[in-house]
Amino acid sequence: TSARNSFLSGLTGVGTESFETYKNDADSPLTLDFSGIGSATLSGAGRVTSTLPGITNGNGRYATDGDKYWQSIRDFTIDFDSPVSAFGFMGIDIGDRNGQVRLSLTTTGGSIQVINIDNMLDSPDGSVLFWGIIDSENAFSRITFENTAAGVDSFGFDQMTVGTPVPEPKTYALTLAGLGLIGCIAYRRRKMDSTLIAA
Predict the structure, then answer these.
(1) This prediction's pTM
(2) Residue predicted with more confidence, 59 or 1
(3) What contacts 12, CB < 8 A, 6 or more positions away?
(4) What is the pLDDT of residues 144-167, one digit of tens each?
(5) Residues 21, 134, 82, CA angle at the centre, nearest 5°?
(6) Contacts of 168 (CB under 8 A, 6+ apart)
(7) pLDDT digits (tens, 9 = 90+) for 177-187
(8) Of 12, 104, 170, 180, whose CB neighbour count within 10 A is largest?
(9) For residue 176, is pLDDT > 60?
(10) What are the DSSP calls for 59-125, one per residue?
(11) Which residue has the higher pLDDT, 143 or 100?
């Protein structure tokens, strides 16, 4: 939760999909709704699963918000209707059977960035992690979730979130420095004009 809150503090206009509006056992393709920020299509292996709040499904998976989540034992993909620069999710019960999540992010320029999530291997049932990325310079249009132990280690996902990155402080500093330079130039010009008039 602390990691998720830190991620959210770097964003504005946040939208989250928690799978609460889908029927139990709904499979792909699903249209993900990021609360007015945008939408996406989830395709591939998996299904919407539900548990009572505070109770696992018997194998360590459960929702982190409400009572529904996305469960998958194989790979799936999210295609965004509009490119995003920030994406995060809660991962539940990842790694208890030595599986890891490998993400492939396709940028708007067509390049692919592969990221291995550094989750604990042979972790206890019910472990939870939050992972997020904010990259204001390389917006991406697709994310593929790969399971390194496909068919063996089943994962849960909830609270998938997108948002707009807050401008970094250095942007403000450069802007202020630029304004200061303009002010200095304007002052010198005024001083020069006064000299010319006096002459």
Answers:
(1) 0.79
(2) 1
(3) 163, 164, 165, 166
(4) 999 877 777 788 999 999 999 998
(5) 55
(6) 136
(7) 444 444 434 43
(8) 104
(9) no
(10) SS---SSTTEEEEESS-EEEEEEEEESEEEEEEES-STTS--EEEEEEETTS-EEEEE--PPTTPPT
(11) 143
Determine contact, residues 8/90, Cβ cutoff 8 Å.
Answer: no
Give the whole-angstrom CA distance, residue 49 versus residue 61. Answer: 9
What angle is formed at CA 114 by the lines to CA 5 and CA 28, rounded to 5 degrees? 75
Separate counts of helices (H) and strands (E) for the chain: 2, 12
Residue found under tokens 């029927």: 23
- Report which secondary-structure segment, H or E, holds 189: helix 169-198
3-class DSSP state of 37: coil
Of 56-65, 67-76, 121-130, the range with the highest mean pLDDT is 67-76
Residues in the chain: 199
Which residue do the tokens 């390389």 mark? 138
Higher pLDDT, 125 or 160: 160
Mean pLDDT confidence for 80-90:
95
**b or e along 22-44 (b: 16 or more beta carbons within 10 Å of the residue's beta carbon)?**
beeeeebebebebeebbbbebee
- Burial classification of residue 102, based on how many CB atoms lie within 10 Å of its CB (0-12 exposed, 13-18 middle, 19 or more buried): middle
List of residues 6+ apart from 52 with CB closer than 8 A: 67
Residue partners of 89: CB distance under 8 A and separation at least 6: 130, 131, 132, 157, 158, 159, 160, 161
Residue in 115, 189, 103, 178 with CA at minimum distance from that of residue 142: 103
